[in-house]
């Protein structure tokens, strides 16, 4: 009986650990991402892109942006891309875009045929998506990056 007591004690202590709920997840579906955006007080208009993949339109700190979904074949998507475009009166130079890309860690910039700049941030998703706190971190990185980029380009 004495040998059984430690086993029972360890088992009893392990039960609360097994019963602890896992943190909430934001999975790679348009509905889940849209709900998470709304939970953080942002609008989320769901639609589809030209390929039929999900796409969400939103706004953060006055900056319109889209969330594009990739790797969505028969499962939650495997990555997201946050993207904002800025319509400027004067085209932005490639040198200015290169300066951003060289000096900033988050958010890749590029210019279209008219010289208008875009900022993108890729977010890979695991099979279980992101935790709520992980998605909050992604949103904050995007908010800071988009805000800094808009100042950087004089928008």
TrEMBL record:
The keyword Signal applies. It holds the Pfam family YbjN. Keywords: Signal. Residues 1-24 form the signal peptide. InterPro entries: Put_sensory_transdc_reg_YbjN. This is YbjN domain-containing protein.
């Amino acid at each position: 009986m004495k040998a059984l007591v430690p086993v029972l004690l360890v088992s009893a202590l392990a039960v609360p650990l097994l019963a602890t709920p896992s943190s909430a997840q934001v999975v790679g579906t348009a509905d889940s991402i849209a709900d998470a955006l709304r939970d953080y007080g942002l609008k989320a208009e769901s639609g589809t892109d030209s390929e039929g993949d999900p796409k969400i339109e939103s706004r953060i700190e006055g900056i319109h942006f889209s969330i594009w979904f990739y790797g969505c074949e028969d499962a939650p998507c495997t990555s997201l891309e946050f993207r904002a475009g800025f319509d400027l009166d004067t085209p932005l130079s490639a040198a200015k875009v290169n300066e951003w890309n060289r000096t900033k860690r988050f958010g890749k910039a590029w210019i279209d045929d008219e010289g208008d700049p875009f900022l993108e941030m890729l977010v890979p998703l695991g099979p279980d998506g992101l935790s709520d706190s992980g998605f909050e971190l992604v949103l904050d990185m995007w908010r800071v990056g988009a805000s800094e980029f808009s100042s950087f380009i004089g928008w």
